[in-house]
Amino acid sequence: MPSEALDLLRSFVTKGHASAAAAAVVTLSDAALFAVGRRRSLRLDTETSTLRPSPAAAVDLDTAFDLASLTKPMSTLGLLARGIGDGSLDLDEPLASAVPLAAGSAMAEVPLRSLVGHGSGWPAWRDFATVFDDDRAAGRARRDAHALRHDIVAAVLATPPERPAGVAVVYSDLGYLTLGFLLEARLRRPLDVATFELFSALPVAAPPTYRRTPVGLSPRDNDVVATEIWPRRCRAGWPLQGVVHDDNAAALEGVAGHAGLFASIRGVAAWAREWLRAICGREVALGGALLPEVADLLRRGQAAPDTSWRLGFDTPSRPSSNAGTLCSDATFGHLGFVGTSVFFDPMRGAAVVLLTNRVHPGRDATAAIRALRPALHDAVWRTMGTGFR
To answer: What pTM, to 2 d.p., does this model score?
Structure first.
């Protein structure tokens, strides 16, 4: 790990932009890992409305972070890639053939490719967690998890598109929520179970995993890095810790296609190496679940013209990019709202993973994370020079 990159991470935490940060530089033959900070640093005193320090253990290489939207490429895209590879899924298959509830909806004939590449026409986001909140506000009995999940699936599929599929790309959680439902139906098992099976091939003791939590509960787990003190769900003033930050994922008991995955820097680095093997080493990866030709298809394919987005990953937008100014044009990656990211540069045969909790105790560190990401990546790319593979 370059000293410049380490200094950037330490400064990010010291200045209070996050209470914890971890990073990894992954190559086909090695991985440099680093972690700094504490799992929780603040809680809100609800009587005085002031933030107070809270005892917190230091993070290490095995401390779990909420990965937020890194769930999309790691879990959902990983399972889709396995299905594409074994022939059980087709990117040109219409949604209604895979998700029967979509029959008769405006999205029925939209191909899966459009959802994977954010070209479905759906809006970026909608608040589906209110399906649960409305029950609570009205004093109605809480629906069981299966019924609530069904209602949220129906609410997502009933959302009207804002444009025809394949016309333009708008990064959308709705598409990946739906892909999660599709995978559960096709695989006939919950998404967290299927994901656990997928990651069982990783050579780490604690692979990435969902943390299933009953709807409405926000337990504190000191083994996980804290995220936001979010009044909607943190009535006692403690930050979310051990439960997913994303509200829509929380309404689905923490298991969704767009968010919900937790992992340590060691676990994400192990996953990143598998993708490097498939893209750079031309080797079958993830225990045979990721074929080189499928990985290449996903990182090159598109769901609409004139977009930086590929099928599950974004590519650099010049002149500025979260992946820095020194990345090659072959670079691709993904961001997570809570302050996570991964970028692969196949020309260098390397990947950079960044995990932070920049939403702790609040989500005001937007400018800081936007400055950190490109600076960190350039610090890494600079040490690798321009001797591309």
So the answer is: 0.96
